[in-house]
Every structure is written in structure tokens, then in C-alpha cells.
Amino acid sequence: MFKKASASSGYRDPEVLVGLDLGTSKVTVVVAEREGPSGEAQIIGMGQAPSTGIRKGLIVHLDNAVRSVRQAVSDAENMVGLELSDATVSFSGGDIHSIRSKGMISLGRSPRTVMQLDVGRVIEAAQADVAVPPNQMILHTIPVEYSLDGNTGIDDPLGMTGMRLDIDLESVIVPISTVQNVYNCVDRAGLNVTGFVIKPLASALGMITPEEAIAGVIAVDIGGGTSSIAVFADGRPKHLAVLSVGGDHITNDVASVLKIPIGKAEEIKKEVDLFSDFSDYQEDRLEFDHNGRNYSYSLSDLTDIVQARVDELFLSLVKGEVANSGAPMLSGGLVLTGGFARSTGIDLYLSRLMDMPVRVAFPVDSNRMPPGRNGPEYACASGIIRYALEQERDPFRYIEQPLDQLLKLPIKRSQDIGQHSDAEQETKGPSIIESIKSVLKELF
Ligand SMILES: Nc1ncnc2c1ncn2[C@@H]1O[C@H](COP(=O)(O)OP(=O)(O)OP(=O)(O)O)[C@@H](O)[C@H]1O
Ligand SMILES: [Mg+2]
Q1: Nearest CA to ligand 1 atom 28
Q2: Quick count: other Cβ atoms within 10 Å of Cβ 124?
Q3: Domains: count for the chain
Q4: What atom of ligand 1 comes closest to residue 22's alpha carbon?
Q5: Is pLDDT above 50 for 425?
Q6: Which of 360, 375, 410 is the last residue before a domain boundary?
């Protein structure tokens, strides 16, 4: 018998946190239970379903995606014996980027204590010049660094004294239609969306240690259809990006170059040591029968295909995003998750390629996750719970537009779709000023 914690009953179990990772290969639901007043939570179960209707992180067939979410939710419900009602949702897709801006406010002619309203004002000042195209919106507002009277590197200026407050701010911009489709999908699957978190942030929080975040680190999640990149330094995200390249592109490369079906290419990709150097062993061959035909390829040719794609991904795309982060020292190196991080030898290969330490990470909470669902491809799920907890602890760390404000955007609940309303004409969301004010209101 399920313990009732459902939306239909109007009751939301405050002890339970639920995360939903909308992946290209799989949809994952993670359920955590709070651990008393410690502010921590323990993962108590995970559900999963093969992902249909999602390509390169983007919903391309709503009904199929809804079905996958329902299946994953029901799998999780069976595991934990609870009926789930709400979820913080992690998603990605194309055209997601983050923009850095600076803001400054004066605190007066003589030094005084920084208050929460001042923090709100300086964030507002930094975001005033961020140009958001009409079809996009700011999903996350992330303070990267504060300075007080020219002293840089201040983590939290609240309660400190000064005359001038400066901020470096990161704004994560996403297409409105992407958020709308994710919202519709989850809503139709029967869950209330309690918040959104962009995949690079969730994955990073699910894979890096606090020490790495402070030392400076590149967190890369190579999934099926996307690669998520987060650069952290001084404990804060400096840059977040989603690339529409993932493990499935490598499968496609293998299939098209070797002229074999996708299914067979996927099998080979997982079996062969993709990062070994076979160049001195041209006689080493991959031989198999498929549909009555005998295939024989040089292993060196196969690994060349894969390594060329990985070289392009890291040397051009990942390095480009790291340069955009402006982070000077990343002594924590590169941390890798996602299904493709399971490839044997990828850490050593990338360590040579990028000339830095590389670690393949299991989720930070892997010892609390069910066996078989605690590998590198579940870091994002684990990170959603971390994000939800951090949001509660410090609402100024990752400022998200409150959902009631998000819903005033062109986003409509699924039951409204098909009905014309004045709201449909509305194209502009609430300003960040209003969002910050509502965060402040919640605090007072
Ligand atoms: N042992 C392995 N070796 C190489 N690749 C693997 C291995 N296991 C899984 N993969 C690849 O990992 C990818 C799936 O990874 P993951 O489960 O992290 O994706 P996802 O989270 O659903 O997708 P995304 O985050 O891109 O939306 C697939 O391309 C799959 O082929
Ligand atoms: Mg993923």
C-alpha cells in the first residue's frame, strides 16, 4: 500500500525531495528523505525508464516523453512505496548559455553593514544590461563573486561592512519554448514542478567535491545526446554550458564509417577499448558476423574515429567553454560523468589530451544510491537533490525565478493548452527585479 503524498490529496510530504532528470537515453527519478534538522537528505530510491521523445536533450515528441516520465515515476514509487507528487526537474537542450555581467552599488558616504536588500540591488544592477532575446528567459541568476570596497573574492557580503558593493553575476539563459515543453511534459505526467535546474549545474553538484569546487575544476557530463559543462572555482560556478554532442554521436560516427547498423555500433562502442592505442598493432582486428555477413575492421581505424570526435569535443568545444569562464587556475582538473565516462581508459586519454588530472566520478551520494543505479550516468540525478537542498539553505546562491512568476510567462498549465486566453498574448516574463524582490519577500 502506498503512503499518500500526492498532489491530488493536496498534501505534499515535506520530508520527501524528488528529482527528475530528463535525459536523452533515460529518464531518472530520484527520491530522498530528509535527515531530521541536519539540512541533509538521504536518497531512498530511484526509478528509471528508457527515454523516448527526447533528442539531444530536447523534447521532440511530447506524448512519448510523458510516457517515459510516467514510467520512471511509477518505477520510483514502487521502489520507495510512496506516491510522488512534486519534483525538481533537470533538463537541457540546444541554445542554452550563460552570460557574465558586472554590477556596482554605493552603500553610502560612510561604511555600513551590507543587508539583504543591498544584495538584491547589486544583482539587479548587474542584470540590467543583460540582453535577453524575446524568445528566451533567464532561468538561473548565479552570484559568482562579490567585492567590497575593491576587496575581491568575497563569498557572502551579508553582514560585512563597506561603502561600495560590486558583483560578478552569471545569468543562465534558456529558450522559453524549452522550459514550456518540459513543464507541459512533467505536468501531463502528473507531477507538480517545484523548480527547474539546468543540467550542467545539477551534474556538477552531483559529481564534484567541495575541495575541487574551491580549487577550480571542469565538470563534464557526457550523456547520450548532450555534454554538460560546468566550470567551478572558489566554490562557485563560473560558467555553465550545454553542447549538443554526446555518446550517441560517437555511435553514429562508428555506424556510418564502418557501415554497420546503429545497434551493432552501440554494442561495439561499449565492448572495444576505445582509448587504447592500436596504431602499432595494425593486425589487431575487430571481426564479427552480422545478418549473415562477415565484417573485419582494423581496431586502429575504429579507435581513430572515436578519438577524433572526442578530441574535437574537448580541444575545441570544452576548452572554448573553459576560456569563456575566465577562471585562471583549475588545479582540480577535469571530472567526468555521464554514460560515456564508462569507456575504459578515457581518464588517462583525456589527462594526456588536456594536460591535467582527470577523474571519472561516481555520484557524490553513490553509496546511498541503489546498486546498478549509482554509476557515473546518475550524477545528474544525485545533483538535483543537492541543488534543492542548497536552494533551501541559501536562496541567494542560485536564484531561480519563483515558479508562480515563471508560470506568468507564456508557460501555461497543460489543461489550458488549446484554449485562447489573454495570457497567450503575453510574451514578456516578470523582470529579474520582481524575481529578486520575491526572493527577498520570502526571506522576510
Ligand atoms: N560502457 C560504456 N562505454 C561507452 N559508452 C557508454 C557505456 N555505457 C553507456 N554508454 C553511452 O552513454 C550514453 C548514455 O549516457 P547517459 O545515460 O548519461 O545519457 P542521458 O543522461 O540519458 O543523456 P543526456 O544527458 O545527453 O540527455 C549513450 O551514448 C551510451 O552509448
Ligand atoms: Mg544525462
Answers
A1: 224
A2: 20
A3: 3
A4: 27
A5: no
A6: 360
Residue 6 in any domain: the answer is no
Q: Are 310 and 349 in contact (CB under 8 A)?
A: yes
Q: What is the rounded average pLDDT of the residues 274-293?
A: 79
Position in ligand 1 atom list of the atom nearest CA 270: 3
The reply to whether 183 and 52 lie within a common domain is: yes
Distance 257 CA to ligand 1 centre (A): 20
Q: How many CB atoms lie within 10 A of CB 116?
A: 16
In ligand 1, which atom is closest to the CA atom of 227?
26
Ligand 1 centroid to 151 CA: how many Å? Answer: 44
> For 379-412, what is each residue's pLDDT tens digit?
999 999 999 999 888 888 898 877 666 655 555 5
pTM: 0.90
pLDDT in tens, 172-198: 999 999 999 999 999 999 999 999 999
- Give residue 339 CA to ligand 2 midpoint distance, Å: 8
Instruction: Check whether residue 26 and residue 127 sit in a common domain.
Output: no
Rounded CA separation 52/71 (Å):
11
The residue out of 375, 393, 411 marking a domain boundary is: 393
In a domain, 420, yes or no: no
Which residues have CB under 6 Å of ligand 1? 23-26, 51, 57, 223-226, 246-248, 251, 266, 269-270, 338-340, 342-343, 377
138 with 127: CB under 8 angstroms?
Answer: yes
* CATH number, position 135: 3.30.1490.110
Mean pLDDT of all residues in 22-43: 93
Residues 221 and 347 in one domain: yes
Alpha helices in 276-363 (DSSP H): 299-311, 319-325, 346-354
Q: Does 348 lie in the same domain as 260? A: yes
At 332-375, the pLDDT tens digits run 999 999 999 999 999 999 999 999 999 999 999 999 999 999 99
Residue 307 confidence (pLDDT) above 90:
yes
Do residues 217 and 300 share a domain? Answer: yes
Residues 6+ apart with CB under 8 A from 127: 101, 103, 138, 141, 169, 171, 432
Distance from residue 200's CA to the centre of ligand 1 (Å): 15
